[in-house]
Specification:
Number of domains: 2
Number of strands: 11
Distance between the termini: 34 Å
Radius of gyration: 24 Å
Shape: elongated
Order of helices and strands: HEHHEHEHEEEEHEEEE
Largest sheet: 7 strands, mixed
Helix content: 25-40%
Length: 269
């Protein structure tokens, strides 16, 4: 629930919050509201039973965790009359914790924002209406949340480009895409790539590049990509390189006149 960028900081934050209801249970003057505690337990059980994906929405179960823990914290109450010294101490500690987390989140977002601003400079080199294959690399054991999964979709916003990273599973949006030439690269999460042996979401970098239907795309945009052999992107010419971002142009696409290039069709349901 606090996973963001710095493992020790995030784990310590979660430990503090989870320890608060336990503290209330052992403190002689505090307890938990039975109604709220029961509600939190129901949410926790629902989290355990829910699948990861529901109606095309990923991490459905994880979305319940902050609410379950928050209700546990809200369940804390005094057994009898309120003891104001203790109440004030708890309030000051809560505000201090909130301030620390807000400061950390603000710093983390500032770092991510600066990096994304640099990565998005690639869009300046993408022509209007281009077809862009986006691949975002993510390390298996990396704690920091990846924030580039759908960054490639900004090419659609700014250049009316087709990208493969934001067309969702059936039933989760009011837009659908029809571009059979793209094969598997018609929808999320085709853009997520990992190293071989990683058991998490996504396929290996080499496999994704092997199966990429090059004739269906004009550009290949690699985000947060680790160093890869040049032969893996044979037929693609780098046109722009920045921090955590490299844009390559399909060498064959240069020879095709615009009138012969197939465009993707997007429609509202």
């Amino acid at each position: 629930m606090f996973r963001d960028r710095w493992r020790d900081y995030d784990v310590a934050s979660a430990g503090i919050v989870l320890a608060v209801p336990l503290f209330a249970l052992v403190h002689p003057r505090l307890t938990l509201s039975r109604n709220l505690a029961f509600s939190a337990l129901v949410l926790a059980l629902t989290y355990v039973l829910l699948p990861r994906i529901v109606f095309g929405s990923a991490y459905t179960d994880m979305r319940l965790v902050p609410y379950a823990v928050a209700i546990f914290v809200l369940a804390i109450r005094f057994k009898a009359e309120t003891r104001y010294p203790l109440a004030i101490w708890l309030a000051v500690a809560a505000v201090g914790f909130m301030t620390a987390r807000l400061a950390g989140t603000t710093a983390s977002m500032a770092i991510a924002g600066a990096r994304q601003a640099e990565q998005l400079k690639a869009i300046d080199h993408i022509p209007q209406g281009a077809r862009v294959a986006v691949l975002v690399w993510d390390g298996c054991e990396k704690w920091a949340l990846r924030r580039s999964d759908h960054l490639g979709a900004m090419a659609t916003v700014r250049k009316d480009a087709y990208t493969n990273d934001h067309w969702p599973m059936v039933g989760s949006a009011l837009l659908s895409v029809r571009y059979p030439e793209a094969g598997w690269f018609q929808r999320d999460p085709s853009q997520i790539v990992r190293d071989r042996g990683c058991r998490h979401e996504g396929w290996s970098v080499e496999t994704a590049l092997d199966y990429l239907p090059a004739p269906a795309f004009d550009y290949l945009w690699l985000l947060d990509m680790r160093p890869i052999p040049r032969e893996w992107v044979k037929g693609w010419t780098p046109v722009w390189v920045g921090e955590g971002s490299i844009l390559l142009r399909n060498e064959d696409a240069e020879a095709r006149p615009p009138a012969t290039r197939r465009t993707a069709s997007v429609s509202a349901r």
